[in-house]
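seq as requested:
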Amino acid sequence: MKVKPEGSPGLYVHVPFCRSRCTYCDFHVAALRPGVVTDYVSALILEIQHHADAGFSPETIFVGGGTPSALSVEDWTRLLKCLSDSFRSGLKEWTIEANPESIDEQKIEIALSLGVDR
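struct tokens:
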């Protein structure tokens, strides 16, 4: 007998970069280095596309870290667009961690336009 769990899985996307490490932080984080960050986002995009192509369909997405809002506008847009294109249908909630020091109106508008709701 197969037992199917109730509901669909959630997706957590870890963005392990910060402008600086907070003294209270116990998470795996690294300093922002533009080339490294862009390469990491490119690898995330490949991983996301692989799982989407395999039929993975989460009900929730949580993008955390680190500080996802510390990404450049270009990397922020590439990552969120990939998540939106891959998983937006059937999505019940999409949350992104943000820091007031690194989020701005442009990033908020991009996030909202792609379906982020928290």
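The longest strand covers residues 10-15.
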